[in-house]
C-alpha cells in the first residue's frame, strides 16, 4: 500500500509545477523535483533521474547516497524500465532478477520512464525506499503524471 495517498500526490504535483513552470533548465528542474520527492515521500533513500544518452542511462540530479553512474539498457530496474519504456514497481528489489544494488539499504523501488515532448525516451525517474512494498499503483499513476512536469 502506498504511503502517499492521492491527495498528497496532487499537492506534490502542484509543488513540482510551481518549481518548474518558469524554468527551462532541465538540471535545475530535476534537482528541485528530486529534492521535493526525497523530502516529501516516506522511507525514501534515493530520488533522482538517469538520463538516456549513448544507449545507456547516466546518473543525473538526485538526492540520497552516492549512486551508480552508468546503467546499461535492460539491466536492473532502471535499465528494464528504460528498455521496456514502462514503469517498474518492485515490491522487493532482492527478488528482482539482475537488481543493481547501488545502496544496500534499498528494499523497494519504482522507476518511471521520462519522455520528450515528441515521445522519445529521455531517461527515468528512480525512487528507492528502505521498506519493502513501499510503492503501488497510486504511486505509479501520480509519478507518471509528475514526470510530465520536467518539460523535456
TrEMBL record:
<dbReference type="GO" id="GO:0033745">
    <property type="term" value="F:L-methionine-(R)-S-oxide reductase activity"/>
</dbReference>
<comment type="similarity">
    <text>Belongs to the free Met sulfoxide reductase family.</text>
</comment>
<dbReference type="InterPro" id="IPR029016">
    <property type="entry name" value="GAF-like_dom_sf"/>
</dbReference>
<dbReference type="GO" id="GO:0005829">
    <property type="term" value="C:cytosol"/>
</dbReference>
<dbReference type="InterPro" id="IPR051330">
    <property type="entry name" value="Phosphatase_reg/MetRdx"/>
</dbReference>
<dbReference type="InterPro" id="IPR003018">
    <property type="entry name" value="GAF"/>
</dbReference>
<feature type="domain" description="GAF">
    <location>
        <begin position="48"/>
        <end position="147"/>
    </location>
</feature>
<protein>
    <recommendedName>
        <fullName>GAF domain-containing protein</fullName>
    </recommendedName>
</protein>
<dbReference type="Pfam" id="PF13185">
    <property type="entry name" value="GAF_2"/>
</dbReference>
